Amino acid sequence: MKEKIIAKASEMFLKLGFKSITMDDIAGEMCISKKTIYKYFCNKEVLIQESTELVHKQVHELIDTIVAKNYNAIHENFEIRKTFGELFNNSADSSPIFQLKKHYPEIYQRVLEQEVNQCEYCFRQNIEKGIAEGLYRKNLDIETYVKFYYILIFHINENTSSEKEAKRIELEALEYHTRAMATPAGIIELEKNLLNITK
């Protein structure tokens, strides 16, 4: 039952917001009593903490699944962005990371600490792959570009309240990041992926 509550709460928090969803809402959605939820979680903050850990795990499993499909480095980044868009497709029109930072700063800080190493590892792997494929320039300072992109993406999400606006700026950031690294062949692949989005 505990795992079911975490799964349902995660889904509701991402779609409707960490602040607006109450324990009553979760109980009602699951057709259980609020008392049952409190049997496993002493308060909402503990449930949010466990929910963010589940989402963290799901996100990195999704990334691993996409990487395993062996797309080229640029297409891989666009597929990851598309998958994230579907996962975080909420009706609250408010960025989950922005909400977490604003209303639950301690939990947000823990999420950030968890994400740093894994995100930097993913970005590094992508850049190394792109260089090997001839899509990114060979003379890149990989560590600097990893940090640039990490700072850029997290700054957008933690400072943009509107989910729609965050997604728009994220696409601009991905294009900016890719153009900064791309070879002529990489630019062609980038333009192809951008065209696919507009279709």
Largest sheet: none
The percent range for strand residues is under 5%
Poorly predicted residue ranges: none
Count every beta strand, where a strand is a DSSP E run of 2 or more residues. Answer: 0
| CATH superfamily grouping | Tetracycline Repressor, domain 2
Number of helices: 10
Radius of gyration: 19 Å
Tell me, what's the shape?
A: elongated
Corresponding CATH architecture: Orthogonal Bundle
Keywords: DNA-binding
Domain HTH tetR-type: 1-59
InterPro entries: Homeodomain-like_sf (IPR009057), HTH-type_Tx_Regulator (IPR050624), HTH_TetR (IPR001647)
Protein name: TetR family transcriptional regulator
SSE blueprint:
Layout (H helix, E strand, L loop, with lengths): L1 H15 L6 H8 L3 H7 L3 H25 L4 H15 L8 H8 L1 H28 L9 H18 L3 H19 L2 H15 L1
Helix pairs in contact: 1-4, 4-5, 4-7, 5-7, 5-9, 6-7, 7-8, 8-9, 9-10
